[in-house]
Amino acid sequence: MTEGAGATRSCRACGEAISAQARVCRVCKSPQGWTRLLFQWKEVTVAVLALVPLWKAAGSLAEMARTEPRAPVVRASALACDSDSFRLALTNVGTAAGLVADVRLAYLSDGRRIEPGVDLVPEGGEPGLVLEPGQVVTLALAPRISGVPTVLQFPRGGGECRAIALVKVKTFEENDSVVEAGCPCP
Length: 186
Fold this sequence. Notes:
Largest sheet: 5 strands, antiparallel
Structural class: alpha+beta
Number of helices: 1
CATH architecture of the largest domain: Sandwich
Number of domains: 2
Distance between the termini: 110 Å
Helix content: 10-25%
CATH topology of the largest domain: Immunoglobulin-like
CATH class of the largest domain: Mainly Beta
Mean pLDDT: 84
Low-confidence stretches: none
Radius of gyration: 39 Å
Strand content: 35-45%
């Protein structure tokens, strides 16, 4: 390396002697200024940018693999109770259909639960209602004992009494559940 008009220096990439004012090496064609750093990292930058869509795709695949189990979530509300019928509203807020298999009657009287063996059957219809997600139905249920119509006999006593419909919901994945809805005894 010498000073002056014919000064030379070593190439930063290959070490060959080049002019001190040279911007590109005449041997290896490497830039000698700060732009050489751009060319050194070009491949790394391209590789990182190529991975971005793959990273997004992997995130999408992971989201697809993390599916929530599909299941019905049935909610019930008693609308009216009397000795001849039990009116019930059902809604499915879940992600799968559920089968309302049967509805049984129970009483809660003075803190005790009594199950008299009474079925509540839809009036004018067969049991076994399929409740789709988002569907809301109102059922008028008639009391039956072994398929024979009956009149509900409410417990008599001085304390609190509630008539409770026990709604058995079957799922296609065999995760059955029981939903309860009650109203005060008449």
